[in-house]
Amino acid sequence: MFPHRARRHGDRPSRARPLGHAAIASLVLLGATASGAVYVSARAHDAGELVSSSASSRTTTTKEATVEPVTAPTSAEPTPVSGDALLAEAMGSVPVETGARLSVAVLDTESGLSAVYGDAAFDTASIVKADILATLLLQAQDAGRELTAQEKTYASAMIRDSDNASAGALWKAIGRAQGLAAANARLGLDGTEGGDGMLWGLTQTTAADQLALLRQVFGDADDSELDAGSRSYVQGLMGDIAAGQDWGVSAAGPTGFALKNGWLPRTATGLWDINSVGRVVVDGRAYLVAVLSDGNSTKAGGISMVEAAAKAAVSALAGAGS
C-alpha cells in the first residue's frame, strides 16, 4: 500500500499526490490537432484502483479512463444584443407624469434590430388613418383597380390634414371594423381591434402592431402585402404632413421623416391620448418608430413625452446597430 495522510478542509493540495489517494483520476494526454489543443476528461477511479505507469509494473486490474475529446474554442462567442433591454433602459430617462402610460416600438431598418417597450393596448386616435388607407389600398389591389379620384381626395385630406370627415367616409368604404380586421390579418396586425360603429378613433392597437404596419409601408418590399404603387402612395402622403401636425417621432429625425399623429381628449377624464408613428432618417440611417401614450393631462405635455421617447428609442438602437 502507498502511505497517505488525510487532508483537512482548506489544505492546499501538494504538488505530487500519492497514488493511493481515495479517488485517482486517469489522464490521457492527446496531441494537438490541426484546429488547436484538445481537452480531455477522465473519470476518477474508485478508491483502491490503481493505474500502472508501465506495462511491466503491477498487474492490478483497472477500469479504463473515459476520454472525451473536446475541441478548444478558438474565440469567445459575441453576446447577443437585446434590443428590448436597450429600449427599456432608454425609456428610463423619459419623464412620464403620474397616471400616464407609454409604449414604444422601434426598428433599425439597416441592421434589422428591433425593440418593443410595453405591450398594452391604446386608443389609436388618428393614427388609425394610416391603417384605414392601407386597408383601402389592399382592397383595391385585390379588385385589380386604382383608387378613384374621390378616394384619393379623401385619402389626401385624411393623412395630410388629419381630416375626420374624410376618415369617416373611407372607414365606411372599407367596411368599418370588419374590413379593417380582414386587412390587418394579412398585414400582420394581430393585436388591433377596430372601434365600434363609426368610432374609428377608438380602435385599440399596440406599439408592436403599429411597427408591423410601418414595415408594410416602409420596410422590405418583398415582405409587404402592399404593392410598390400602394407603398409609394402612402409614403408620399405621410411625408407631406400639414404644418402644425408634423410633431412627434419627427423629433428624432427632423430633416427626413414621414409620419401620422393622433391626439384625442377623452370626454370622461379630460386626459389626452397622444400617439405618433412613422419613419425618421438619422445620419443616413432609417428607423421606424411608433410611440403610443394616454393619461396625459395636457396635449402639449403628451407631445413632449412622445418626442422624448422617440429620440431616446432611436438613440438606443443607433448605438447598438452601428
Task: Characterise this structure.
With 322 residues, the chain is an alpha+beta fold. Helix content is 33%, strand content 17%. It contains eight helices and eleven strands. The strands form four sheets. The protein has a five-stranded antiparallel sheet, with helices on both faces. A two-stranded antiparallel ribbon has the order 1-3. Strands 2-4 form a two-stranded antiparallel ribbon. Strand 5 (101-108) and strand 6 form a beta hairpin. Helix 1 runs antiparallel to helix 8, helix 2 crosses helix 5 (176-187) and helix 3 crosses helix 4. The longest helix is centred in the last third of the chain and has 23 residues, at 299-321. The radius of gyration is 32 Å and the shape is globular. The N and C termini lie far apart (67 Å).
Q: What's the arrangement of strands in the largest beta sheet? A: 6-5-11-10-9
Mean pLDDT: 83
Global morphology: globular
For the biggest sheet, the summary is: 5 strands, antiparallel
Unreliable segments of 5+ consecutive residues: 1-72
Order of helices and strands: EEEEHEEEHHHHEHHEEEH
Radius of gyration from CA coordinates: 32 Å
Helix content: 25-40%
Helix segment tally:
8
Strand content: 15-25%
Distance between the termini: 67 Å
Summarize the structure in short.
The chain has 322 residues and is of the alpha+beta class. It contains eight helices and eleven strands.
